[in-house]
Amino acid sequence: MTATPADFDARFFRSALGRFATGVTVITTETAPDARPLGLTISSFNSVSLDPPMILWSLTKSASSLRHYLHARRYVVHVLSSTQLQLAKRFAYGPQAQRFDGVALSRAPGGTLMLDEPECAAWFECYNLTQHEAGDHIIFIGQVERCHRNFSQPLVYHAGDFDLTPSTEPLSST
Ligand SMILES: Cc1cc2nc3c(=O)[nH]c(=O)nc-3n(C[C@H](O)[C@H](O)[C@H](O)COP(=O)(O)O)c2cc1C
User: Which CATH number does the domain housing residue 77 bear?
Assistant: First the structure.
């Protein structure tokens, strides 16, 4: 089906966008000045620039934690592995105040609060460089200060659901 914005609704648009498979991340930071941990499940993560290293992600203006991310100095983007489905659900659907219950935490080398989750496929400690208003979302551009990667199978999100089909191919280690 082909449609123009005049006659497609948000559901149709979301369904079309959902044909694009993505990975799944959890992005952590802290409130200021009381240093409460904050975390969100985000699939809009993408690469922007290799040199200097920059990434982007977008956050709905209706997120309760929006103002904290706008003012955060740094955040950590954790790329989840296929074994971390429960973490993805907790940081998307759980109440913000309880998302960190029982979750081990640590600090990235630059001091930013992060999950102590060795199974993450990768993580990026980012300086909160710029934010850009775009419709009902804010696009965040992060300058990557440190990154780490594993060769674990990534968690995949597709067509509005987590794709739990096991891969038959081993991951390349390059
Ligand atoms: C797989 C998945 C990906 C998501 N990606 C995004 C995203 O890219 N941007 C966004 O604003 N919300 C996204 N969400 C919804 C947020 O995780 C959710 O609205 C957020 O946790 C609300 O947090 P807050 O209101 O406590 O700030 C996603 C949810 C799921 C399940």
Answer: 2.30.110.10
pLDDT tens by residue, 100-122: 999 999 999 999 999 999 999 99
Which of 25, 36, 60, 131 has the most ligand 1 atoms within 8 A of CB, as the residue to mutate? Answer: 60
Task: Specify if 24 maps to a domain.
Answer: no
Please provide the size of the chain in residues: 174
State which amino acid sits at residue 59. Answer: L
Residue 173 CA to ligand 1 centre (angstroms):
30
Q: What's the CA gap between 115 and 161, in Å, rounded?
A: 23
pLDDT per position as a tens digit, 128-172? 999 999 999 999 999 999 999 999 999 999 999 998 776 666 667
CA 24 to centroid of ligand 1, rounded, Å:
10
Ligand 1 pocket: which residues have CB below 6 Å? 24, 40-44, 58-60, 63-65, 88, 91-92, 96, 157
Note down the domain range covering 54: 44-156
In a domain, 97, yes or no: yes
Q: Is residue 113 part of a domain?
A: yes
Q: 167 in a domain, yes or no? A: no
Q: What is the pLDDT of residues 7-66, one digit of tens each?
A: 888 899 999 999 999 999 999 999 999 999 999 999 999 999 999 999 999 999 999 999
Cβ pair 154, 82 in contact under 8 A: yes
Q: Are strands 25-30 and 22-23 parallel, antiparallel or unpaired?
A: unpaired
